[in-house]
Amino acid sequence: MNTLHRIKVLGRDLQVRSTADSETVRNVELFVNEKLAEVADSVKMGDTQVVAILALMNIAEEYLTLVKAAEASSMSSCDRIQRLIKRIDTDIE
Fold this sequence. Notes:
Keywords: Cell cycle, Cell division. The chain has helices spanning about 20-40, 50-90, and strands at about 5-10, 10-20. The chain is an alpha+beta fold. The chain has one domain (about 5-90). The protein has a two-stranded antiparallel sheet. A hairpin with a 2-residue loop joins strand 1 and strand 2 (about 10-20).
């Protein structure tokens, strides 16, 4: 069920609907604001659109890195499982 939550991002009060609980929405809000603050500190100009775009790019890069690592880990696990199955099959014969 979607619940209405109030958050504040880039100084703007927003209402968002989410199936996540209040704590999760709050953690997302904090994460986004931290990323925006990091970028704002490193960008000389105060254009909020540029700050938002750069923060999105940083978040996307981190996300894609994690996805790639998870896929590699999953493939590694699959390889180990296949080797174990072969050992079991060999021992049964």
